[in-house]
Amino acid sequence: MKAFAALLDQLIYQPSRLGKLRLLADYFATTPDPDRGYGLGALAGTLDIPHAKPAALRELMTTRADPVLFAYSYDYVGDLAETIALMWPGAGANTAPPTLGHIVETLRASSKQAVPGLIAGWLDDLDATGRWALLKLLTGGLRIGVSARLAKTALADWGALDLADIEELWHGYEPPYTEMFAWAEKRGPKPPATGATAFRPFMLSQAIEEQEFAALDPRDFIAEWKWDGIRVQVAGSTGGDGRVFARSGDDISATFPDVIAAARFEAVLDGELLVRGDGFNPAPFADLQQRLNRKAVTRKMIDQYPAFVRVYDILFEKGEDLRGLPWEHRRQRLDAFMATPRDAFDLSPVVAFDTWDALKELRASSRGAGMEGLMLKRRDAPYIAGRPKGPWFKWKRDPLTVDAVLMYAQRGHGKRSSFYSDYTFGVWRDDELVPIGKAYFGFTDAELKQIDTWVRNNTTERFGPVRAVSPGLVLEVAFDAAQRSTRHKSGIALRFPRVSRLRWDKPAAEADLLETVEKLVEG
Amino acid sequence: MNPSAVVASWLKVTPAGLRAAPGNFWIDPVTPVDRAVITHGHGDHARGGHGSVLATDPTLAIMAERFGAQSGAQAARYGEPITVGDMRVTFVPAGHVLGSAQLVLEYNGLRAVVSGDYKRRRDPTCPPFEVTPCDVFITEATFALPVFCHPDDGGEIARLLHSMRVFPERTHLVGAYALGKAQRVIVLLREAGYSAPIYLHGALAGMCALYRHYGIDLGELRPVAGEPLKALAGQIVLCPPGALSDRWSRRMHEPVTAMASGWMRIRQRAKQRGVELPLVISDHADWNELLQTVREVKPGAVWITHGREEALAHALGVMGVPAQALSLVGYDDENDDDLTGTAPPS
Ligand SMILES: [Zn+2]
Ligand SMILES: [Zn+2]
User: Fold this and answer.
1) B311 contacts in A (CB within 8 Å)?
2) CA B172 to ligand 1 centroid distance, Å
3) Nearest CA of chain B to the CA of A418: how many Å?
4) Which residues contact B221 (CB under 8 A, 6 or more apart)?
5) Where does A400-518 sit in CATH, by number?
6) Which of A70, A72, A418 lies at the smallest CB-CB distance from B247?
7) Residue boundaries of the structural domains of chain A
8) CB-CB contact of B185 with B283 (8 Å)
9) Domain annotation for chain B: domains and CATH numbers
10) Per-residue confidence at A369, pLDDT binned at 50, 70, 90?
11) pTM for the whole thing?
């Protein structure tokens, strides 16, 4: 537990990705099995242990401390795990603190009633950092700035393995991942991929600019609409226990039981997850967001925001791996497969074109109706994991822009911690500015310095790391779409906002009005 | 009448601070007064512009360094009673920073002790806190929550040195208050065997020179100003906490940002400041030490000056010691809410 606690404690303060990878590699190299595998699972969100409810932990604390003092402390610290870790009496016996493996295995083997007693005993044995790590683990969701993908990347880097290989195997294995560590340390063979519903790494596209088309022959390519949903892989199962995986490889099946119920087939499909709007048109992305990141879904949710997958590729059919086939052949197999109508699945059409100019016109028409541009795919390209250069391109439509006024600036993180680099901007409603979004990229380092100086010189109020500024700096903000939102005072939310230009020349009073932005709302 | 009520008749909270009527002086006044008695040199306790000042010799020197020579300055020695008006005042070491003192006030057979800021841990840069039994103990409460339990400072210094080994190419930028913390960190580093030159932000130079004058060996110190960037790679640079997020810090190349403060015990506070390496090193008593001190001093009553008064008053009440908060305003210890500017905030 000591190594895992030290790792979490270092990760939480480490701003850089490379620094995090270095810390993780060090942990894998110096921590024995099965602890490191449980640690990896905890970071990647695959470690399944009985979780402790906050109320139970609070109760446990009051058996050891004055409830009034606990209340003052919790109020001051603001985080339950940290409050308990810091105020648990005793400096940690620490003679032989429990290992992570011991904790995980004991919890799994114990009855529910025994858990509070076990936790109390471990809290007595651990020091403050160990207690904090244990409580983080028990309350679920470590939130220390390490994604599942980063954890897997660290394993790949450390073991000199291919990340795509790890992702393909990942869902067939469980913590403590001893087979994977043996493989990474060259002590064992590459573990076999298991089962028809294992995750297969995605093939990804590269962005393309208009001037790059001259070098390409339109006859080599086909086009598809680029849908504004989330990319998913559906591994069907005739038993009704298929899987839906997100781009990260995360299994999101539990969130989309409507898709799983319809995925009673023996195939692995690649497509876009969308919510059905009017007729067969996709609803705005905001509707899909209602369905995302939910552990439990209600019937009502499903009826109100029915999910479906618009399919554009097939990777496996009846156990046969189709990924080595050229796109054209896979598409024939896909068309045949989709000839059978299925709930929650439809086919993404191929868009015909002869010349790049014709395609350009099509792209211009792609605004609205859930599209965000075009995809270009080489007819002869096999399905290659990762982001190969050349076979697939995405050609996003031109962004929308709005001239907005800088309202608040917040200090950034890591290298940017001495700069005000995160900006909240707004537009005018009558005489008042209403915030419509936040942006923290799109400007150069030199521009960042200029804005930073301007913010410091035009501060009207300070709230911790945030400064309110007088209305004086106009930012041209580019974004992919505007949507209705109840979360913002303005009633509007922007997709992928970024600063496209600093309008030092433009008086704040001449920035855009809210009603102008409202006209850009889709759906 | 009980002793606490009697002391309350001659030791009162006024807008300028705590006033001892029989001696006609104010303790650590926040606005200019005729006669000030100062516990220690931190900016929220020692301010300029008073008619006369009674303090230890190092505290007077610190004030002179900050505000220029003080009119009517009178130096007190530890343990030697001084008559002021109708009462006796004795300065007793508080173990907080160089020159810091508790004030033992005696009048009409009753004794009140004003702790000022204090700590109980060993500090090689100043004499240790001395326990003085009294009727009323007037204590600070900066870290008066059970979550504050300062770890051993040697362990914290070891973490700094470990980080220097893991990131040997990076500059380790350590935020530390100009008075007390900076010198303590330097001496602790020397004790841990770190003998390389330590680089200083300009705002720390004066206090370090003053500590040296009082015989504290700090080893080789060098100003950052004028050093080429490359020379700072792999070195320790000390600066005031405000400078960590100030434009000044940008001249460092990929620094590891560290901060030495008792507040670093709380992860969110450290994270909020963008600190990568929080060092929990405090010049104040932690929760257990505050309670332990009251047990040793055995006062009839405790008054609490500044900090987290409610929690301490509650815990003392449970212990059977009558306690009340004085709610003094204007004292802000190691407060890191103000993040900008290079002026050392006390
Ligand atoms: Zn102080
Ligand atoms: Zn103070």
Assistant:
1) 68-69, 72-73
2) 25
3) 5
4) B186, B197, B198, B199, B200, B205, B208
5) 2.40.50.140
6) A418
7) 2-139, 206-396, 400-518
8) no
9) 3-147+283-325 (3.60.15.10), 153-279 (3.40.50.10890)
10) low
11) 0.70
